[in-house]
Amino acid sequence: MSGQPQWLPAHAKLHTALRDTLLLPRNAHLLVAVSGGQDSLCLARLLLDLQPKWGWQGGLVHCDHRWRADSAANARHVQQLAKQWRLPCYVETAVEPPSSEAAARHWRYGVFEALAKERGYTGIVTGHTATDRAETVLYNLLRGSGPDGLKALGPSRPLSPTATDIQLVRPLLSFTRTETDAVCQQLDLPVWDDATNQDLRYRRNRIRQELMPYLRSHFNPNVESILAQTADILTADVAYLQAQAQTLYNQIVETTLDGWHIHRDRFRQAPLALQRRVARRLLQLALDRQPSFEHIEKIVALASAPNLSQSDPFPGQVIAQIRGDVLWLGRHQPPEPQPPPQAGQNSLS
């Protein structure tokens, strides 16, 4: 990465933030995800301009989901910009358009991981902002997420369980979309107008276009910063609760051939927040899916029930049962059917 920047306050803000947090180490190999929108272009250009101070090497990656008629033109636009900036550019196109935002994200992050491993990149950098973080907090709150969902979009995490040495980094979480828009205008960056961002059929767009402006106007003009601060607070709280829950889990849960045994006296003595976390982890293992709040509460309530009490079946015929001092969780095994009697054989013998 190289360039002769027009120095803006945004450059100083990002430089200072990176110096204080060490999110992007010096001389790192960075792959910057660029959609062509204002946030990702702002990020790519600021990193490009700061490169002489940090010694980064990097390239751009663009994922074409094939959701729009102009998606191929969008990809060419990013490629042209990368050529102008003298950066490597990787464009990946979905074989079939992803069926949902979640599927698109899964595919996109798989692309990032494969490229990083193939090309030796140690960091994947995305243009998520404080505005994105605030919108995600609201989105998850309205979906009924607990603290783990509300701590959304931290500044850094391992890319995936199979790529723990590659960091996913979000350096712009202290920037709002108003700020990234200003950078794009001041540097005359060619922002690609994605029409799907105005489509109110997507709930996130409705939050961005309708709910956030309403909250800024009628409740708090700094709502983005307030919600981002809330996410920061919850991130620290959740980390502490996770550590405590892990300790409790190790102390009271035994894995057996037929499922899991929870020593229920110690389970009941623990704070409710830790009970719920231990129950959720067990159900995640047993159900191979995210359990609902109702599933978790079933386990918590059952721990205080009389001996031989049993839950209704969970998905996949998993049940929980009180067996003396133990709460057992495992898969219900129906009795094997008996073979029919042979012809001429007395079935009562």
Architecture overview:
The chain is α/β, with parallel strands linked by helices. The chain folds into two domains: 220 residues, Rossmann fold, CATH 3.40.50.620; 75 residues, Chorismate Mutase Domain, subunit A, CATH 1.20.59. Helix content is 48%, strand content 14%. The chain has twelve helices and ten strands. The protein has a six-stranded mixed beta sheet with strand order 3-2-1-4-6-5, sandwiched between helices. The protein has a four-stranded antiparallel beta sheet with strand order 7-8-10-9. Strand 2, helix 3 and strand 3 form a beta-alpha-beta unit. Helix 2 packs across helix 7. It is elongated. The mean pLDDT is 90.
Brief write-up:
The protein is of the alpha/beta class. The chain has helices at residues 9-21, 38-54, 71-85, 101-119, 130-142, 147-150, 177-186, 203-218, 223-252, 264-269, 272-287, 293-302, and strands at residues 29-33, 57-64, 89-93, 123-125, 156-158, 167-169, 253-256, 259-263, 318-323, 326-331. Strands 3-2-1-4-6-5 form a six-stranded mixed beta sheet, with helices on both faces. It has a four-stranded antiparallel beta sheet with strand order 7-8-10-9.
List the helices and strands and how they pair.
Blueprint: H1 9-21, E1 29-33, H2 38-54, E2 57-64, H3 71-85, E3 89-93, H4 101-119, E4 123-125, H5 130-142, H6 147-150, E5 156-158, E6 167-169, H7 177-186, H8 203-218, H9 223-252, E7 253-256, E8 259-263, H10 264-269, H11 272-287, H12 293-302, E9 318-323, E10 326-331
Parallel strand pairs: 1-2, 1-4, 2-3, 4-6
Antiparallel strand pairs: 5-6, 7-8, 8-10, 9-10
Helix pairs in contact: 2-7, 5-8, 5-9, 9-11, 11-12
